[in-house]
Amino acid sequence: MASIAVVPGSFDPITYGHLDIITRGAKVFDEIYISVLNNSSKHPLFTVEERMELIKKVTKDLPNVKVDTFHGLLVEYAASVNANAIIRGLRAVSDFEYEMQITSMNRLLNKGIETFFIMTNNQYSFLSSSIVKEVAQYHGEISELVPPEVETALRAKFNK
Question: Is domain 4-158 classified as CATH 3.40.50.620?
Answer without folding.
Answer: yes
